[in-house]
Amino acid sequence: MELGPGDVLEGLVLDLTEGEGEYGPWYRLKIKDESRGVVRYFAKDDVKRAAAQDRIEVGEDIWIAMDTDEVTLERDDGSTHDYHPTNCFFPGGG
User: Fold this and answer.
1) CA 92 to CA 56: how far, in whole Å?
2) The whole model's pTM is what?
3) Which residue positions in the chain have pLDDT lower than 70?
4) 6/24 Cα distance (integer angstroms)
5) CA distance to 71, 80, 82, per residue, from 74 (Å)
6) d(Cα 78, Cα 68) in Å, to the nearest integer?
């Protein structure tokens, strides 16, 4: 599932899968969203950092949202890329 600016994904983490790809580690969450049912979400930004730090727990709630404000990222080669950051919060206090 892809989030768009302002979209929120909220619910219980059912599974967390991780792997290694061409661009480094990746994490996929299986979440029982309150309004969408069970969805699979590839972690980005804050969610990816939280997964890498072992802060996401299966059986715990998570709130994920894509920001509506666009941010410009400057790459090592000097080029820029505009994107909407993705944030997460753990309602259970994690």
Assistant:
1) 11
2) 0.85
3) 93-94
4) 27
5) 10, 4, 9
6) 25
